[in-house]
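Section 5: illustrative case.
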């Protein structure tokens, strides 16, 4: 049985990019624009709260004080897809 993914660390980068680390050790950069509606990201950025993400240790999500949160399931799926595409690109260039 697969365990529900849990984000344990998150580091915000430029251009709505966030490095996330999952409890199982999977780590990488996800584009928040693909996971959180842009209107929420812009509001967080304009208020200055975008740079203040928190980890909800119970839910395993990244969240902000206005209630916006990042689904660890969606983040993990997007990250795995991105890593698979990169691996395919790397194998095609060798």
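Designed sequence:
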């Amino acid at each position: 049985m697969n365990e529900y993914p849990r984000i344990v660390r998150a580091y915000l980068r430029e251009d709505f990019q966030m490095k996330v680390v999952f409890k199982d050790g999977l780590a990488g950069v996800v584009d928040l624009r693909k996971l959180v509606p842009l209107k929420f990201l812009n509001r967080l950025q304009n208020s200055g709260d975008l740079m203040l993400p928190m980890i909800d240790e119970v839910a395993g999500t990244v969240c902000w004080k206005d209630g916006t949160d990042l689904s660890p399931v969606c983040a993990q799926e997007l990250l795995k897809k991105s890593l698979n595409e990169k691996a395919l690109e790397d194998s095609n260039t060798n």
